[in-house]
Amino acid sequence: GDSVTQMEGPVTLSEEAFLTINCTYTATGYPSLFWYVQYPGEGLQLLLKATKADDKGSNKGFEATYRKETTSFHLEKGSVQVSDSAVYFCALSPGSNYKLTFGKGTLLTVNP
Amino acid sequence: NAGVTQTPKFQVLKTGQSMTLQCAQDMNHEYMSWYRQDPGMGLRLIHYSVGAGITDQGEVPNGYNVSRSTTEDFPLRLLSAAPSQTSVYFCASTSGVGGYTFGSGTRLTVV
To answer: Is the CB of residue A25 less than 8 Å away from at least one CB of chain B?
Structure first.
């Protein structure tokens, strides 16, 4: 079945550092890929998405590129801020039924 | 737009009690889902619906029932609460192409 593996946290960075959170997936066909962010005490918010190979999703300075050859969708940001502290989830949807399969989440803490 | 509204936000149940978690969306989305979030487990799909009158099981459906009588509402029923159902529950909806919109969650404790 479908699965998503993302790097385990927690990840602790200083403000303005470069962020990478790795995400790889296993799925049949051509799933859509997503990054969701969860701030403390809140629900999940869609951060960015990509629906086909080589698509780049971007939002709020975050980027991720859909790499079918490596089945990856790594999240990057060039300069993190304290306000980026949250849990980040990688997810996929096969498209045919729109069910989401999530990774286990990565806790990011950014220190001033 | 309210988006996805979940009630209640917090609930404490005794083992064996039943309750219904409410979920409503005002975006006319066809697809709705219920997930539970547990530490170290990510989010796991409980039940989902592809339209009014159509529901199906997800990864962890045991102990839960759903129905979808209208496009807007997708309640989740706990039939006989167990401590293993202590979790944070999220309802979500989508039109299919833009990714899901999530509610703010219900934190349930079963004692």
So the answer is: no
